[in-house]
Specification:
about 15% strand; HTH_HxlR; transcription regulation
Length: about 300
């Protein structure tokens, strides 16, 4: 394998780990399908919205749909199967933000329609049914897998912009974790057990300036703490972000792997030895979620 090639997880990170991309997809799940609706609810600039919609169509996550507006025909957008399959990532992001980030306006509860009750999300292994957290897994990274230097060249840095004031899309903690590809990679590395600055830099091939910035942000957010020996250790809040990263890896395997990208990173469940396939269960009734059985995602 040539080291200049991005693997499945690297490509998935480049596609999804972007604040505006995730918020546009989140709103698509909530029923938004028209340009003006995204612009109004997200308070996003025309240039940014147009660029992200174009990128999502090119990546196969959204597809154009025509609709009638009086006597005129206009262009809207709908989630594809590929785009719709990030529902687990969005639910885990919502659950983490609601649980761990204090806010004046609370996020709505996650409701499992099968039992009708508000619930937390329980992350399980689909192969054996066991509950899964970062300490129950091991990560296998292929030695040829490139670092963020290649990811940065393939996917130029995007501006973060200002988060929307709309409470449904104001997710300041989660967007630090998954809405920025450098931050997502650094926290993902921490979840594999990396603690020292030099080890982060070597594993990710990330510049010292960018790495210092992301580590500082995560300490301020409370997902990492800095020990007396200068190492960075996950807090309970940081370990709780594991489902977000696991869902990103799973989506990347399924869809970027299907495009021919080789598997560069695998999360394996120690108890059964299988590559982790995430199942989200309702803590109230114990049954598994489906895409159309849990809010805030609306059924098709």
């Amino acid at each position: 394998m040539r080291p200049q090639e991005l693997g499945a997880v690297g490509r998935g990170l480049g596609l999804l780990a972007d604040t505006w991309t995730l918020l546009i997809l989140q709103r698509a799940f909530l029923g938004v399908s028209r340009y003006a609706e995204w612009r109004e609810t997200l308070n996003i600039s025309d240039a940014t919205l147009s660029a992200r919609l174009r990128g999502l169509v090119d990546a196969g996550l959204l597809e154009p749909r025509s609709y009638a507006d009086g006597a005129r025909e206009r262009r809207g957008y709908a989630l594809t199967e590929r785009g719709g399959d990030i529902w687990k990532l969005l639910i885990c992001t919502w659950d983490w933000e609601k649980t761990w980030v204090p806010r004046e306006v609370p996020l709505p509860e996650i409701v499992h329609r099968d039992c009708g009750r508000p619930t937390r999300v329980r992350v399980c292994c689909a192969a054996c049914g066991g509950a899964v957290g970062p300490r129950d897994t091991e990560v296998e990274r292929e030695p040829w897998a490139p670092g963020l230097d290649l990811l940065a060249r393939r996917h130029p840095r995007r501006t973060r912009g200002t988060l929307p004031v709309d409470p449904l899309s104001f997710l300041p903690g989660a967007m630090e974790i998954i809405g920025d590809r450098w931050g997502a990679a650094v926290l993902g590395a921490a979840l594999t057990g990396i603690r020292a600055f030099n080890c982060f830099a070597h594993e990710l091939a990330i510049s010292p300036e960018v790495l210092s910035d992301r580590l500082r942000r995560f300490v301020a957010l409370g997902v990492l703490s800095r020990s007396g020996d200068g190492e960075y250790r996950l807090t309970d809040k940081g370990r709780a972000s594991f489902p977000i990263h696991a869902c990103l890896v799973e989506w990347s395997h399924r869809w970027c792997g299907a495009d021919g990208a080789p598997i560069d990173l695998t999360i394996r469940h120690r108890a059964c030895g299988q590559p982790l396939c995430v199942r989200l269960d309702c803590e109230q009734c114990g049954r598994a979620f489906a895409r159309d059985s849990v809010s805030p995602v609306r059924p098709r």
